[in-house]
From TrEMBL:
InterPro entries: Aminotrans_3, Aminotrans_3_PPA_site, PyrdxlP-dep_Trfase, PyrdxlP-dep_Trfase_major, PyrdxlP-dep_Trfase_small
PROSITE patterns listed in its UniProt record: AA_TRANSFER_CLASS_3
Pfam families: Aminotran_3
Keyword Transferase annotated: yes
Stated name of the protein: Aspartate aminotransferase family protein
Keyword annotations from UniProtKB, A to Z: Aminotransferase, Pyridoxal phosphate, Transferase
Protein family according to the UniProt entry: Belongs to the class-III pyridoxal-phosphate-dependent aminotransferase family.
Gene Ontology molecular-function annotations: transaminase activity
UniProt keyword Cell membrane, yes or no: no
CDD domains hit by this protein: OAT_like
Amino acid sequence: EQTLSNKAELIELDKKHFLHPTSSIQAQQKTGAPLVFTEGNGIYLKDMEGDMYIDGMSSLWNVNIGHGRKELAEVAAEQMNKLAFSSTFSGFSHEPAIRLAKKLADLAPGNLNVSFFTSGGSEANDSAIKLVRHYWKVKGFPERKKVITRKRGYHGVSMGSTSATGIPEFHAMTTSLAPDFLYAPTPYIVEGEFTEEDLMKAAQEVRKMIESEGPETIAAFMAEPIQGAGGIIVPPEKYFEEIRNICDEYGVLFIADEVITGFGRTGKMFGLEHWDVVPDVMTIAKGISSGYVPLGAVMINDEIHRELIKYSKGTLFHGFTYSGHPVGCAVALKNIELIEEERLIENAAEMGQELEKGLKYLEEKHWSVGRVRNVGLLGAFELLADRDKNTRFDATQGVAGKVVQECLKRNLIVRSVTYEGTDIIAIAPPLSITKEEIKDIISIFDDAVSAVETTLK
Ligand code: PMP
């Protein structure tokens, strides 16, 4: 345990020297100072005071396997001792990257058989966009360069992926976005009553967009199977089937961003499997290594691979120093092995049902709780002024932020999503969670919502 002066020093140094990545939780936390964690175990994190927190967000939807898995640390050390040669540039290769690429080909749907490695999700999405544009170019269709993404979609913060992101708040730090991105509506209606049919219109808007822009100018449609940062937006049953049909009709490539939904989060290996739809390109990160090491990948199908190889003459002017880092790949392989051995995907599906029961209980008990939803262990509920009419609290009330704070006071870390005036609370615990631990989370939500409700109306 840290000494008192050491703790104060760490907090002061953090404030002075550490520019934190975007975070809504930091600003809302109970102490007003950075919360400094020292250890993790399962769904729990321990801070400098020795207090235990439930990590209801799996760090940032990434620690799928849970915290403190020594097996991953051991594999990392072993690999680092053997070979930490950090580049698969120029045809140099090594076994961990080769084995991981093969494993991913076995796991991925359809003929997504080839992986290009990156250090994370933003790089994977930037790479996906460049690879599909290059694919069209080498096939003789350089005009196919526009990428349709969706409002409330989140794809990262590098210039390409931030431009692909359909949340205006994430555009605030740049004066100009990358060209050739279009933002289609997403199947979510912020306020007022609506039907499934109204939600399905979002798919038809994609068709209209392709038609009005001209299909010969569209390279790809890119979407998260379930929007994460945008607020756990689960599409209607037929949405992705319709999207796949539209893409096929116009020859548009479909890129699935499985950065959050991959590796068991939703109770299946990949999120799109819930709708039996196969994308042409898939990006993955986070759960691939359960966040123990930075790693991501773009997976492309055999046909795209063939074309890229045929015309690139062995040179792809794209690659990162850490593309396929052996330590990252070795840890990812072990992580996937443990996810399979311990049946964590099956557990995510089962515990997802427990989470669903818990969320429904909250909805029954609390007048302000509505629109509860989850797919496996990716869940959410909303705070609504009038849930029958689907009306919002005034954004200045900061209701979701208050709930996050009340949870944090009770040592549960969750996240709010407040774009366009929503008050969404997201929950995504590690896949190793038990029934008892789900109950603990629901009981904290229960108390936190009660505490906030007394201040409302
Ligand atoms: N895509 C999605 C769906 C994400 O949720 C994220 C990260 N939250 C990213 C891409 C970007 O990944 P990274 O932060 O590893 O760059």
